[in-house]
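Supplementary Methods, section 5.1.

A reviewer requested that the exact input to the structure prediction be made available. We therefore reproduce it here, unchanged from the version used in the analyses.
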Amino acid sequence: MRRFAMVQMDVFTKKRLEGNGLAVFTDATGLSDAEMQAVAKETNLSETTYVFPRDAATEKARGIRVRIFTVAEELPFAGHPTLGTAFVLRGSSGAPEITLELNVGAVPVHFEDAPGQAPFGEMRQRDPEFGVRHDAETIARVTGLALVDIDTSVPIETVSTGLAYTIVPIKTLAALQNLRINLHTGTEYLKTTNGRFFYFVSRETVSPTARLHARMLFYNGEDPATGSAGGCTAAWMAAHGIAAPNERVMIEQGIEMKRPSEIFVRADREADCVVNVRVGGNAVEVMRGEFTL
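The structure derived from this sequence is encoded cell-by-cell as follows.
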C-alpha cells in the first residue's frame, strides 16, 4: 500500500463550502502520470494539484514543482490551483512569498497579512498575449447565444496569461444568469482559433462591489472560480478601459451554482502594452486526508 497526504481547500473565498474546491497532494513522489490523472478524476474537483518536493537550493532558484490536472487532462497553468497550493505550502510559516514552478514556468504568489483579516494571496501571471477578436454573429452561432445578448461595445477577444480564454461580454446580468450554450460546437470553434475555454462576463453584477459577473462552463460542468481566466480578463479590462491601470477590482463568479467566489484582479499598462497581471483572493482549508493506492 502507498499512502499520499492530501489537503482540500476552498479557494477565492473566506468561507468554507464556498469558492472553488481544490485537492492538493503535498508529496506526490512516486505517482505516475496515469495515476495522477485517475486520482484527479476520483476527486472530481475542477483541478487537483501534485507537489514534488526538491532540495532547498533548487526550490529557492526555480520554485516548488507543482503539476495541475483536471478530471480529463493536465493543464500548463490554472489560477485557483496555483493560489490554493501556495496557501497550503505556506501553512503557518508567515512566508511573504511562495513561488511555484508550473509547466508554464515560475509563478510567484505574494501574501498580504493585515491584523484581524484573513491572509490574502496574489499571484503574478505571465504578461498577456492578445489573440483573435471574434465576430459576434459567429459566436452567437457556435454557442447558441442570442445575438441580442452579446455586448458589442467591447471586443470578444481571446487572451492568454498561460491558458487561453475567449472573453465574451454579455449585456445583462439576467442573460448571463440564464446562460445556456452548446459546448460541443463552441469547443470545436475554439480549436480553430487557439482558445481553450469561453469566459462569459457582464458589467451588471449582483454585488455592488464587483466590477464583473462571470461564468465559465466546460466539460466538467461549471467552474465556481477561474483564476486563470481572471488574469486574462484583467488584461482585457485594462486594454479596453473597463478598469484603470493597477486598479484592483473584483470579479464575482459561482453564484448560480451556490459556490460564490471573489476573484481580485489588476493589471498595469506601459505605453500600449498590458503588463504585470495579478490575480488574488483568499483560501480556507476544509479537509485533510490520505489516499491509499
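The chain has a mean pLDDT of 97. These observations are discussed further in the main text.
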